[in-house]
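Consider this:
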Amino acid sequence: MPSMSLDDALLTRLAERAETLLARIESLLPQTPEPDWDSAVAFRWRRRHSALGAQSWLAPVRHRGTISLDDLYNIDEAKRLIERNTRQFVAGRPANNVLLTGSRGTGKSSLIKACLNAYAARGLRLIEVDKTDLVDLPDIVELVADRPERFIVYCDDLSFEDGEPGYKALKVALDGSVAAASDNVLIYATSNRRHLMPEKMSENLAAKHTEDGEIHPGETSEEKISLSERFGLWVAFYPFRQDDYLAVAAHWLGHFGCSAAQIDSARGDALRWALERGSRSGRVAWQFARDWAGSHGKQIRQTAAPSAAKPRRPKAAAQSAAPEKARKSAAAGSARAIGPRSR
């Protein structure tokens, strides 16, 4: 066998070095790592920009909120609709994408988190996506399409201005792509705007039949409402009455370990707290309860969130929890007791 010439040896070395260099460059290019599906039941879609491009991945949420459906007061109809839709979805039956709209602080986001806690053990998972990252929705759907779990893509406080790229991406993801929607993905979005985009009086004033006016002015409005219309289920949330606000405040005071007498004595402070903020809502009630309980020496009670990996409690453990249930019932009774006095 003839020996390798000097030129052939040089070419071989150059090829080896080129392969090594290409391998190093590939390691620096943006990649989407495989998520650790067993590490959490809630994830956030993260995006990082660099000189070599954008890198996106699903980051597990290690510590999620422990709110339950029983903690949500005075939104019974909304809770019934969302829970029913989520239960259908988890069971593999047809279900709709959901748009939750209405007054601030009334429980829109909390209801979605509570549904996750209620159905995580049955395979429900949640992926939180920022509005600016909605352009990645096709990648997210493709990433989870073959998984056995059921995924809710959650967009909080959603609204758009004219020209934002996420608007078109969300429209296509909801109903408009040539690809069929994945059966294991739904989109739940919350917004204070029902139609998700600002609607201006100037649009009506500009609808003039003049030589420089728009030929079809009605199509502008059609475009504005076309996104919200692609959500199959609309759920509206309304401002709380005073009785409702006081009942929620009493519930959270009981959650922090306040007695019935303390809850009753906090009524005036709760009303002043709401008056100073110009709002009566579940969020304001929660903030008041934290402030009042903390200023009166109460400690934060640690509660474990439901987990898909945890089995059901044995009967002995359930019996030992009876005093805790009794305490919660007493707090709920106190909430009802202060209601009639709130006029």
Observations:
- The longest strand covers residues 42-50.
- The CA atoms of residues 279 and 297 lie 26 Å apart.
- The radius of gyration is 27 Å.
- The longest helix spans residues 6-28.
